Amino acid sequence: MTHIAFIGLGHMGLPMARNLLKAGFAVKAFDLQKNAVEQLAAEGAIAASSAEDAAQGASAVVSMLPASRHVEGLYLGENGLFSKLAPGTLVLECSTIAPDAARHVHAAARERGIELLDAPVSGGTGGAAAGTLTFMIGGAASTLEKARKLFEAMGKNIFHAGPEGAGQVAKVCNNQVLAVQMIATSEAMAMGVANGLDPAVLAEIMRQSSGGNWTLEKYNPWPGVMPHAPASNNYSGGFMAELMTKDLGLAQEAAQASGNSTPMGALALQLYRLLIKQGKGKQDFSVVQQLFVE
């Protein structure tokens, strides 16, 4: 592969594109925020003036966009990117979108002979920068093998979740668990501190005990416990609360479609919606800690 189009240079997309550059791929990138494109161009990428410009002559396209409507708007319709791509082009759609939307995009790609994988990620901005992301991939196993070197340049754990849309189902399941863990950890941290415990001591006790979880290991929501966590930087950076809210909404849609009961996920969604109403949507999702502190 000599030409990779990368579309969407946000908090996750920019470091992912950087890792493709580091791996020796030629990257032509586009984002609506010109400063992100200019930053990547200064590091060796080619700046594109549009998504179509980025994808012209590309052997693979990687996209990292906020929501289903952005992905469908990019690829579908008479002027969508699928109408511009050559048959056989690989498309790695790494956004987190609704499973049904992913299947819709898959169907449109298949009609034009384009090989698409829905491949949402986990690992946060730190994992994106370090090249240690987890990819949850839906689509044909043969297509995954064609794209494996691209995934390996950006991530460490590459899972074939199943057929079209399966990557998105895996992602919303994972993020529902993450949100519930974060809320439970925040509740416990607030309760312990209110009862006189040192937050760092409490966090370590729980981390080493049966309450241990990823949040306590990597992403404690109490300010000062982990110096590099968003909580210790006024909840800036990381994964925005509004994006977690979006993902929890997608999880509820998936649960409704399959008839599953997910009361913890439903409660998590309501708490994150409350954060949005409080104007905290742009802060890291660990800002949910503030709901439990007077």
Number of strands: 9
* Strands ordered across the widest β-sheet: 3-2-1-4-5-6
- Strand content bin: 5-15%
Query: In terms of per-residue confidence, which ranges show pLDDT below 50 for 5 or more consecutive residues?
Result: none
Supply Rg.
20 Å
The coarse silhouette is globular
Summarize the helix and strand pattern as letters.
EHEHEHEHEHEEHEHEHHHHH
Major sheet, described briefly? 6 strands, parallel
- Distance N to C terminus: 55 Å
* Tally of helical segments: 12
Can you describe this structure?
With 294 residues, this protein is α/β, with parallel strands linked by helices. It is built from 12 helices and 9 strands. The chain has helices at 13-22, 34-41, 51-55, 68-75, 99-111, 124-130, 141-154, 166-194, 199-207, 214-218, 241-258, 263-277, and strands spanning 4-7, 27-30, 46-47, 60-63, 90-93, 115-118, 121-122, 133-138, 155-162. The chain has a 6-stranded parallel β-sheet with strand order 3-2-1-4-5-6, with helices on both faces. The protein has a 3-stranded mixed β-sheet with strand order 7-8-9. Helix 1 (13-22) packs parallel to helix 6. The radius of gyration is 20 Å and the shape is globular. It catalyses: 3-hydroxy-2-methylpropanoate + NAD(+) = 2-methyl-3-oxopropanoate + NADH + H(+). This is 3-hydroxyisobutyrate dehydrogenase.
